[in-house]
Amino acid sequence: MDRIRVDRKVRIGTEVFVEGPPMEALRFQGGREGGIVTLTDVEGNEFRGRVTHLSTQGATVFPFEPFPSSTESSLEIVLLQALPERERMELIIQKGTELGVSTIIPFKSERSISLAEREKKQRKAHRWQQIAIQAAKQSRRARVPLVKEYCSFAEVLELSKPESVKIVLWEKGGQHLKTVLGPPPPREIAAMVGPEGGFTDTEVRRAQGKGFIPVKLGQRILRTETAAITLVGILQYALGDLG
Asked: pLDDT tens digits, residue range 215-237?
């Protein structure tokens, strides 16, 4: 659903008919007639294309520009984000998408605002996936990260893949990030970022019990949105496709 991947080789200037699962992905990305999308062909090559025709059965896309290399990192980053107040969640989704995260999961921690409290002030949660879609278009990604449903702290601890390297930002006593990134370098990372005020000691112990490694980004205390964006950038530079 996240990529418009066709089962043939794409050639510049030759229209491609999109149907089935690729068409579902195009709809998910908000594809419209005249709009620009990123196609992935059977060989993994990526192209910019314009939707020239759209119907209930499928769409026709005219590829006009190849990408010299993939727009997607080989590093899978799942960002587990304690729900912040105000517009910070929207900023985290936008910048995380631009930096190449795979999935974003908002959750409730002891010191974070709840979704119900946040929605009383300003309804925004219904826009989170759309923000990711728009950010993916702006950054020309082939893949739109999935923004999953808001969940509890207990639930978010169970959502990471067993093979992932799991880290939790903790300013009190975490290891330096570079000491937990290999070798061998991980290909999947679940990164948990806390709210303003950080995680409680109890939460960190619970996370450790589920395989999360406490890490810190230095001696300065960062706002939650700064920490999330910085962490994703560092991970992509160290293990992914930045730099």
From this structure: 998 888 899 999 999 999 999 99
- Both 156 and 222 in one domain: the answer is yes
31 and 88 inside one domain? no
Phi/psi for 6 (5° steps) reads -100, 155
CATH code (residue 193): 3.40.1280.10
The amino acid that residue 139 corresponds to is: S
The mean pLDDT of 87-99, rounded to a whole number, is 96
Q: Are residues 100 and 52 in the same domain?
A: no
Alpha carbon distance 76, 182 (integer Å): 15
Instruction: Please say whether the beta carbons of 61 and 37 come within 8 A.
Output: yes
Range of the domain at 60: 4-66
Q: How many domains does the chain have?
A: 2
Q: What angle do CA 138, 2, 67 make, to 5 degrees?
A: 50
Q: CB count, 10 Å around CB of 66?
A: 15
> What is the rounded average pLDDT of the residues 184-212?
95
pLDDT in tens, 142-176: 999 999 999 999 999 999 888 899 999 998 888 88
pLDDT for residue 220: 87
138 class by beta-carbon count within 10 Å (0-12 exposed, 13-18 middle, 19+ buried): exposed
Handedness of CA 179, 182, 187, 189 (dihedral sign): negative
Element (H, E) at 60: strand 59-66
In this predicted structure, what is the pLDDT of residue 120?
A: 65
